[in-house]
Design brief:
It contains 15 helices and 21 strands. It is of the alpha/beta class. The chain folds into 3 domains: 148 residues, 3-Layer(aba) Sandwich (Alpha-D-Glucose-1,6-Bisphosphate, Chain A, domain 3); 214 residues, Alpha-D-Glucose-1,6-Bisphosphate, Chain A, domain 3 (3-Layer(aba) Sandwich); 98 residues, Alpha-D-phosphohexomutase, C-terminal domain (TATA-Binding Protein, 2-Layer Sandwich), CATH 3.30.310.50. The strands form 4 sheets. A 6-stranded mixed sheet has the order 1-5-4-2-3-6, with helices on both faces. A 6-stranded antiparallel sheet has the order 16-21-20-19-18-17, with helices on one face. A 5-stranded mixed sheet has the order 8-7-9-10-11, with helices on both faces. Helix 1 packs across helix 2, helix 1 crosses helix 4 and helix 5 runs parallel beside helix 6. The radius of gyration is 22 Å and the shape is globular.
Length: 484
C-alpha cells in the first residue's frame, strides 16, 4: 500500500511555507511540495531545466526534508545545485553569485523545534509573495505536476564564498568588541567568522550548533535571548551585542550598557547614517515600526522619504524593490539593503555590519548614538493565540471596530484617533504620535500586537489595555506568548 501523502493546506502561508513535521506534513508530502515548486519554477521561467539553489538549516530533520523536496524538484526537470548547510541569505546570495533561476531554503527560521518550512523565490533577491504562494498551493494540492528529467550537483565550499563576499566589502578601522549570539542555530558557523573578518573583536555566545536549542530559541525578539546577550555585553564590557535568528536573516541589537534597542530604532539610526551620503533616498518600514521616521529631522533635512508597508520579509523586500528604495527595515529585525549596499534581500549579518559601520563612522558609544533619537515607550511584539482559520476574520472585525471608534470620536487615554492605516491589519495613530497595531501573524496561529507612545509609558500601556479589551470581547483569543 502506498504511503499516505500528508500536507496540511494551512502550511502555505503568506510568503513561505511552514508545518509541524510529521503532524502536518510527511516526506511524501514534501516530495509533492518539491514537484509543485519545480512545476511553478518551470512555468515562470519558461525553462525546461531551470537551475535551483537548495540549502538547509541545522535542525535534526532538515536534511531528510531537503532530500524529499529535491526528489520532487528533480522529477519535474529541475537541475539542483545543493550548497549544503546554509543561512537563508547564503542561498539568496548564491542565486546572484551562481546566476541561478530559483531558490529553495529548508528552514523554519525561529519557530520552535518540530516546525519545518521552505523559503523560496524565483526572481533574484525576492521571495514568494502571497499570489505566488496561492499558485504553489493550487499546483501542489491538485497535483498539476510537470514531469521531466532533472539532476543534482553538490556545490562545495560555498559557505566561504559567502563569508568572503561580506568580509571583503566591509572592513572597518575601529576596534569594536561585539558579543555575537546565535542561540545554537545555524548562524553560529557564519556570524563570528564574518564579524571577525571585517575587524571586530568577537565574544561568542551560544555559537556551537545544537539543534535541541538548549538555552532559548534563536529568535532576536525573544526576551530570554536578549537578556542573555545583555548580561554578556555587560560582563565583557563590549561595545555592542548582536543576536541572530535560526536562519540568519534577522538580527537583534543590544547597546554597550546592555539595553535592547528595538530593530526599528536601529533602522532609523542606519537610515540617518546613510541619508547624508545618499540624499533624497526612500526607505520602507513595516507597520510594526516606530512613528519616529515620519518626523525625523535628519531624514527630512536630507530630503528622505519613509513609506509604511505590510509586515513580512517578502512584502518589504518587494516594496523596496518596486520603490527602488535604498533600504527597508522591519521591526522583527529583517533589514534590506538595495544597491549599492546589497542585493535587496534580508541578511542579518549584513545588517550587523551596517551597525558596525555606524559605530566606525562616529566617535561615540552606541548608547550615546541611540540617545540622540527622541525617547519613545514601546512594547515588544506580543502574539496572542488565534486559530489560523479564524485570525484574518477576527482582524477584519477589529478594523471595522477601530474605524467606528475614530468616526465616533471616542477617546483612548484622552486622545482621539487621528489616522487609521489598513495596509496590514489596523494601525491607528493619535495626535501625539502614539499608536497601536493589531494584525494577523503570517506564519503562526496568532495575532500580533504592538503599541508605542512618545509621551509616556502609561499611555503605551493604556493603548495596549484598549487593544486587549477589544481582543477579549471577540472570544477567539488565547494566551499571549509574552505580555506587558
Amino acid at each position: 500500500m502506498p504511503t499516505e501523502i500528508k500536507i496540511n493546506p494551512n502550511g502555505f502561508r503568506e510568503y513561505d511555507a511552514r508545518w509541524l513535521y510529521k503532524k502536518d506534513i510527511n516526506l511524501p508530502g514534501l516530495e509533492n511540495l518539491g514537484k509543485g515548486l519545480g512545476t511553478q519554477i518551470i512555468k515562470n521561467t519558461n525553462k525546461k531545466n531551470p537551475r535551483v539553489i537548495v540549502g538547509h538549516d541545522y535542525r535534526s530533520y532538515s536534511e531528510e526534508i531537503k532530500s524529499a523536496l529535491k526528489e520532487g524538484l528533480i522529477s519535474t526537470g529541475c537541475y539542483i545545485e545543493d550548497i549544503g548547510l546554509s543561512l537563508s541569505p547564503t542561498v539568496y546570495f548564491a542565486q546572484f553569485e551562481l546566476e541561478a533561476d530559483a531558490v529553495a531554503m529548508v528552514t523554519a527560521s525561529h519557530n520552535e523545534n518540530g516546525w519545518t518550512g521552505v523559503k523560496m523565490g524565483i526572481k533574484k533577491g525576492l521571495t514568494h509573495a502571497p499570489h505566488d504562494m496561492e499558485e504553489l498551493k493550487n499546483i501542489t494540492l491538485n497535483k498539476k505536476f510537470i514531469e521531466g528529467i532533472g539532476n543534482e550537483k553538490k556545490i562545495n565550499g560555498f559557505q566561504q564564498v559567502y563569508k568572503n563576499d561580506l568580509i571583503n566589502k566591509n572592513k572597518i578601522s575601529k576596534n569594536i568588541k561585539a558579543v555575537v549570539a546565535c542561540g545554537n542555530g545555524t548562524a553560529g558557523i557564519f556570524a563570528p567568522d564574518i564579524l571577525r573578518g571585517i575587524g571586530c573583536e568577537v565574544i561568542e555566545l551560544d555559537c556551537n550548533l545544537d539543534y535541541t536549542f538548549p538555552n532559548y530559541n534563536p529568535n532576536p525578539e525573544d526576551l530570554k535571548m536578549l537578556h542573555a546577550i545583555s548580561e554578556s555585553v555587560k560582563s565583557n564590557n563590549a561595545d555592542i551585542g548582536f543576536g541572530f535568528d535560526g536562519d540568519g536573516d534577522r538580527v537583534g541589537v543590544i547597546d554597550n550598557k546592555g539595553n535592547e534597542i528595538f530593530s526599528d530604532k536601529i533602522g532609523l539610526l542606519i537610515a540617518r547614517n546613510l541619508s547624508s551620503k545618499y540624499n533624497g533616498s526612500k526607505f520602507v518600514v513595516d507597520v510594526k515600526s516606530t512613528s519616529l521616521y515620519l518626523k525625523d529631522k535628519v531624514l527630512l533635512e536630507n530630503k528622505c522619504k519613509t513609506l509604511y508597508w505590510k509586515t513580512g520579509h517578502s512584502h518589504i523586500k518587494r516594496k523596496v524593490n518596486a520603490e527602488k528604495a535604498l533600504a527597508g527595515f522591519e521591526k522583527s529585525g529583517h533589514f534590506f539593503f538595495n544597491k549599492p549596499l546589497g542585493y535587496g534581500y534580508d541578511d542579518g549579518i549584513n545588517s550587523a555590519i551596517q551597525v558596525c559601520h555606524l559605530l566606525n563612522n562616529q566617535n561615540k558609544n552606541m548608547d550615546e548614538i541611540i540617545s540622540e533619537l527622541p525617547k519613545t515607550f514601546q512594547t515588544p511584539t506580543m502574539a496572542p493565540f488565534c486559530k489560523d482559520e479564524e485570525k484574518y476574520q477576527v482582524v477584519d472585525e477589529l478594523v471595522k471596530k477601530v474605524k467606528e471608534i475614530k468616526e465616533n470620536k471616542i477617546k483612548i487615554d484622552n486622545q482621539e484617533i487621528e489616522e487609521v492605516l489598513t495596509v496590514n491589519g489596523v494601525r491607528f495613530s493619535f495626535e501625539d504620535g502614539s499608536w497601536g497595531l493589531i494584525r494577523a501573524s503570517s506564519n503562526k496561529p496568532s495575532l500580533v500586537v504592538v503599541t508605542e507612545s512618545p509621551t509616556s509609558d502609561d499611555r503605551k500601556k493604556k493603548i495596549f489595555e484598549f487593544i486587549d479589551e477589544l481582543l477579549q470581547k471577540t472570544g477567539k483569543i488565547g494566551e499571549y506568548d509574552q505580555k506587558i
